[in-house]
Specification:
It holds the Pfam family zf-MYND. GO terms for molecular function: histone H3K4 trimethyltransferase activity; zinc ion binding. The chain has 15 helices and twelve strands. With about 425 residues, the chain is mainly alpha-helical. A three-stranded antiparallel β-sheet has the order 3-11-10, with no helix packed on it. It has a three-stranded antiparallel β-sheet with strand order 4-8-7. Strands 1-2 form a two-stranded antiparallel sheet.
């Protein structure tokens, strides 16, 4: 696909956003606009053994690569299909042993370079597509990101230099920047990270905080489905970021990661901000200064927790969550997005610790606000229902588990399609429960 040639989709130049896609006919909620394979992709090292490296099939009886003994495949066909890129890592993993530790970005860039080299038969226009339709913003990268990219580039040279040639440093920086701006995280039904890929076709789609489509994954392939009814001429729009947070936070994330601010209707009206920043109702309302100070504390807590997850034990993290909730809830409402954020983190810590009752207690606090604050067909909501359904069933709460499972499925039938393997798995589970 080049933005043209798929029934009902065309490429166009948006006056405000540059390149984009729009529909030339009506699409209805849940309808597939298009599906496309990745230009290049990589399975997360943490998921090796659980998924096939080539087709991303999830099953228990995978065959291991006889040489490196770290890559797993469904069968010989998948192993042969992956060899053109796996051979970059296979010998290196054997040579480096436990010291083999390139970043996922380094691994993906290595595969992109290998793909470009081995696909010389592609037409010139297709070759240009990867560069022209994936934004680089290398010149906008701040010092911290530049340091990270240079570390990734150093890892690329260290672990792959014996097997491939590299472009000059400027071109390599541009390629890493492209991957940073345009790479997609491939996720499972609970939004757990499986791998990373680049889709030049999907990279044509612009952002909106009121998206018309959603991107999900079937194996390594991306699928774009409508989450709103669309009429001919409507632009195809996805969200690049988590939509839970208020306007200023969303635009801060967009500027930080994608170097632009959003001017969609929601960003202009900020219609949900008051609800997202809701303050606790009290006989004597909190003073404006106290609310401002608490929101500042809440934002800082949200940012800091990302770093703390690397440094603290699960017990320490849970204690931090509980202390933060006690502090916030003196001023902020239980449905305030920052309170929700901490509850979500606490739920995750409890799951990790095996405290199912604690995980349910935190998770149940999220359900109603998530359903209200997220769009109608949100993966964040369906994944929460899925997590809770599995917790309920593990705790022998069959009725609650089935109810949550059905609610997850009702969303996923739209976002993933009724024939998606994840949906079929859930249907099978529902029949057996």
């Amino acid at each position: 696909m080049t933005g043209v040639g798929i029934d009902g989709i065309e490429r166009f130049q948006s006056p405000d956003k540059g390149r984009g896609l729009r529909v030339t006919r009506a699409f209805h909620v849940g309808e597939l606009l298009f599906s496309c394979p990745p230009y290049s992709y990589v399975l997360s090292a943490q998921e090796r053994g659980a998924y096939c490296e080539f087709c991303f099939n999830r099953k228990e009886s995978l065959a291991r690569c006889g040489k490196c003994k770290k890559a797993y495949y469904c069968n010989v066909t998948c192993q042969k299909g992956d060899w053109a890129v796996h051979k970059l890592e296979c010998s290196a993993m054997v040579a480096f042993g436990e010291k083999w530790c390139p970043s996922e970005s380094s691994r993906l860039v290595a595969r992109i370079l290998a793909t470009k080299k081995t696909q010389k038969e592609r037409s010139a226009s297709e070759k240009i597509l990867l560069v022209a339709d994936m934004q680089s913003h290398a010149e906008d990268v701040d010092n911290e990101k530049r340091d990270n990219i240079q570390a990734d580039a150093a890892g690329l040279h260290r672990f792959f230099s014996k097997h491939m040639d590299f472009p000059d440093s400027k071109e390599l920086l541009s390629l890493f920047s492209q991957v940073s701006c345009n790479g997609f995280t491939i996720e499972d039904e609970e939004l757990s990270h499986i791998g990373t890929a680049v889709y030049p076709d999907v990279a044509l789609i612009n952002h909106s905080c009121v998206p018309s489509v959603i991107v999900t994954f079937k194996g390594p392939n991306a699928e774009v489905r409508a989450v709103k009814d669309m009429k001919a001429g409507d632009e195809v729009l996805i969200s690049y970021i988590d939509l839970l947070y208020p306007t200023d936070d969303r635009n801060g994330r967009l500027r930080e990661s994608y170097y632009f601010s959003c001017d969609c209707a929601e960003c202009h009206t900020k219609s949900k901000d008051k609800l997202k920043l809701k303050v606790r109702e009290r006989v004597k309302p909190a003073e404006a200064e106290a609310v401002t100070a608490m929101l500042h504390y809440a934002r800082k807590t949200t940012r800091d927790f990302r770093e703390l997850k690397r440094l603290k034990t699960p017990s320490e993290l849970l204690e931090i969550c509980e202390q933060s909730l006690e502090e916030m809830c003196g001023v902020l409402d239980a449905a305030n997005v920052y309170v929700l954020h901490v509850n979500y983190q606490a739920m995750g810590v409890c799951v990790y610790q095996g405290d199912l009752h604690g995980a349910v207690r935190y998770g149940e606090k999220l359900l109603q606000p998530f359903s209200q604050l997220y769009p109608a067909y949100s993966l964040n909501v369906s994944s929460l229902y899925l997590k809770l359904s599995r917790l309920y069933l593990a705790l022998d709460k069959r009725s609650a588990g089935i109810s949550a499972l059905k609610k997850a499925m009702s969303i996923m039938e739209v976002t993933h399609g009724k024939d998606h393997p994840y949906v079929r798995e859930l249907l099978k589970q529902l029949k057996e429960t």
